[in-house]
Amino acid sequence: MSTTGKLRFDCSKCPGYCCSHARIAVSDYDIERLARHFGLSKAEAKRRFTYHYKTKEADEQILRHQRDHVYKTICRFFDTDERRCTVYEARPNVCRKYPYGNRCGYYEFLKFEREHQADEEFIPSA
């Protein structure tokens, strides 16, 4: 939570937008946390849950994805029926920090669309 004010979003009402980002980079510490959560070695967790992404600009371990009916793909740890994180207590730091403030632009967009569509469950299609 931001120290600049009260949170202005509710993740429980979102279909998991941030979890659909194509590159969710994780650190060695994040991989170790997931390994402990699942009772695996760090090497096994890294092999099962991540892949190596390297370009001239980036050299990262990225969380694997799964198919999704709302977004094309989503984080492998996201429950696509319940629309929630299945490893919330062990989630990576990037997930803990998102959206880096007290506002989430996607949540504001979604809230606006739901109000104007008069449908609390509305999800804009891509």
TrEMBL record:
InterPro entries referenced in this protein's UniProt entry, alphabetically: Puta_zinc/iron-chelating_dom
Any single Pfam family the record assigns to this protein: CxxCxxCC
Domain of life: Bacteria
Protein name: YkgJ family cysteine cluster protein
